[in-house]
Design brief:
Layout lengths: L3 E5 L5 H8 L3 E6 L3 H10 L4 E3 L8 H8 L4 E4 L17 H6 L6 H12 L3 E6 L7 H10 L6 E6 L10 E6 L14 H5 L20 H8 L6 E6 L5 E7 L15 E2 L9 H7 L12 H9 L4 H19 L1
Parallel strand pairs: 1-2, 1-4, 2-3, 4-5, 9-10
Antiparallel strand pairs: 5-7, 6-7, 8-9
Length: 318
């Protein structure tokens, strides 16, 4: 039987989708966002979908519902750790122990310790490395002596957008890189015009005539606005995509401008940039759908990780 999987902080299921494509059985997803967990259930009808705060979820509850999984994955909120957050706590340790959202990393480790999966993989932003020593201690207390901080770029594994992320795990994760990167033009090439009945989530967002005029002046790679991140850094948003390159990082708050047309990308187009298959649906309001796409682990990267995990599991059982 194929190995089983539980996804904590599942969102709409990008991380789990990559594992499913690699052959894993997705047993359960947990998320406290109502729209996101509805999307997860729509895409994984065979799985249990828990609309719960992770602080109220125990390993005993998960075991009672679906048994002990072979693998636990999850993406605790990155806002406490990312440099894009101007309200990030100055002391890195406070981000982990004092910030309520940052503490969710501890709850991920708690559930891992209660269920003792053969493999766990926790995704977050590179800023999580600021508390590497503490995270090693937390997972040691959960029963795992060997902890790896695997730094991976999504564009190296078939994702048409940039994303630098850290995957904390009890095994080394080193997937073979693709020989070439996928451009925006390749990713969007065969989609019908926005508003077509299929695929879903492909409705064009409305835009004022004034904004259309401003967008029309943008060249490839230029941003319409900038916002302030941590430590006063200026960060771009509403970028007109260069069709010949992979896209910048897709974020929940980001909107991209089409390389050739004076409009925002649709949710489906942004999902393409994250490697989602076109039958993966996003429910809820338009902003909630964009957030579900931007907060996901890109599917091709998730699958590359899953294939490494699958090999390690098979080696361990042989």
């Amino acid at each position: 039987m194929n190995p089983s999987l539980v996804d904590l902080f599942s969102g709409a299921g990008g991380f789990a989708e990559g594992f499913r494509q690699a052959g894993f059985r997705v047993l359960l997803g947990v998320d406290n966002d109502p729209a996101a967990i509805r999307s997860f259930k729509a895409n994984f009808p065979e799985a249990v979908a828990l609309a719960m705060d992770i602080k109220e979820v125990s390993g005993a509850l998960i075991e009672r519902l679906v048994g002990k999984p072979d693998v636990i994955i999850g993406s605790p909120p990155c806002e406490p750790y990312t440099g894009a957050n101007p309200r990030r706590k100055k002391n890195p340790v406070d981000r982990l122990y004092e910030d309520p959202a940052g503490q969710l990393v501890i709850h991920f480790a708690r559930i891992v310790g209660e269920l003792k999966p053969r493999v766990f993989v926790m995704e977050n932003v590179p800023g999580i490395l600021d508390v590497e020593k503490e995270i090693r201690r937390i997972f040691r207390d959960a029963g795992y002596e060997e902890i790896y901080f695997n730094v991976l770029r999504a564009e190296d594994y078939g994702t048409p957008s940039h994303r630098l992320r850290v995957f904390v795990s009890n095994i080394r994760i080193d997937p073979p890189k693709n020989k070439r990167r996928i451009s925006v033009e390749e990713a969007l090439r065969d989609l019908p015009p926005p508003g077509a009945e299929l695929p879903l989530n492909h409705e064009p967002p409305s835009m004022s005539a004034r904004k259309v005029k401003r967008i029309a002046k943008l060249r490839w790679g230029q941003a319409l606005i900038y916002y302030e991140g941590a430590e006063g850094k200026r960060l771009p948003n509403l970028i007109r995509l260069d069709p010949h390159r992979h896209a910048p990082t897709v974020l929940g708050s980001s909107r991209f401008i089409h390389p050739y047309e004076n409009r925002f990308l649709t949710v489906r187009e942004q999902a393409r940039l994250m490697g989602f298959p076109d039958d993966h649906v996003f429910l809820g309001g338009r902003d909630e759908q964009y957030n579900q796409v931007g907060e996901a682990v890109p599917v091709p990267l998730a699958r590359a990780i899953a294939e490494v995990v699958l090999r390690k599991l098979r080696q361990g059982s042989s």
